[in-house]
């Protein structure tokens, strides 16, 4: 069985990537199962989607603890446990494909992984950094498994993106084709693995579904509202910034309406945002009566912080 796991953020098209790859496998005569798994239903939040493909009925269900291929559309997801744990279950024979401008050797050293690490260069000009890369990732995955033809891939893209305008479909076909070609050298590097029993399973009359480790699946809540253990600041694509000149110190307003309790007043009553836990929902921008909070792109904010 082929097991592929796509990780990305809401809006990057990982569910669509799994649909495309699943449909392409199906066109090649495989039994297929594909399923997305969402956390927060919000653009930018971590999600993952899985594809299983085999020449026999697929009985395996649920999370994919031992993937053969993991594709990560956004490298900033790597340190997060949310979304299933991007690197969880990666054995020596697995393949990791990162959508990143940093080269594969550097990532292999950084992550200290025994498995094969590949990169798919960023398409910043088309995606604006975090745009839709579903077809791109599906095209790369199709070539890495080595048994999906270009015709099956293109047919699946036409099927899954049928509702899109013609030029959007054409652009996605082009991107997927380029990714398919870029992975030529590594075609077939993803291995099939037999259906594995759940750890510790014995023959019985019931089905024992494996579950995720508690640090991935269980809440760990010690503070108000969201968990302090979950750094939702990593979700943020737009950063709220308070202008102290305009702010009238009515912090009970923005502070109590922030869904993550990420705003609290300092001694003088000026609200301060905890950017470790501010997820960028911009509720505070909407409710501020003085229009004292503006939103700026996260990348721009980081550049400003880095500049002397
Ligand atoms: S709601 Fe606006 S004006 Fe009031 S404390 Fe918050 S940022 Fe300042
Ligand atoms: S954007 Fe504002 S309301 Fe939303 S989490 Fe951040 S500080 Fe809270």
Strand order of the largest sheet: 2-3-1-4-5-6
The secondary structure category is: alpha/beta
CATH class of the largest domain: Alpha Beta
- Series of secondary-structure elements, N-terminal to C-terminal: EHEEEEHEHHHHHEHEEHEH
Quick gist of this model?
Helix content is 30%, strand content 18%.
What's the arrangement of secondary structure elements?
Blueprint (H helix, E strand, L loop, with lengths): L1 E8 L4 H14 L3 E8 L7 E9 L14 E4 L22 E5 L4 H8 L4 E5 L3 H4 L6 H12 L4 H11 L5 H17 L31 H4 L20 E5 L8 H7 L5 E3 L5 E3 L9 H5 L5 E5 H9 L2
Helix pairs in contact: 1-4, 1-5, 4-6, 5-6
Describe the structure.
This protein starts with a strand and ends with a helix. It has two domains: 2-195, Pyruvate-ferredoxin Oxidoreductase, domain 3; 224-306, Alpha-Beta Plaits (2-Layer Sandwich), CATH 3.30.70. The strands form three sheets. Strands 2-3-1-4-5-6 form a six-stranded mixed β-sheet, sandwiched between helices. A two-stranded antiparallel ribbon has the order 7-10. The protein is globular and about 65 Å long. It has helices at 14-27, 104-111, 124-127, 134-145, 150-160, 166-182, 214-217, 251-257, 283-287, 298-306; strands at 2-9, 31-38, 46-54, 69-72, 95-99, 116-120, 238-242, 263-265, 271-273, 293-297. The protein is built from ten helices and ten strands. Helix 1 packs parallel to helix 4 and helix 1 crosses helix 5. It has 308 residues and is an alpha/beta fold. The structure holds iron/sulfur cluster (2 copies).
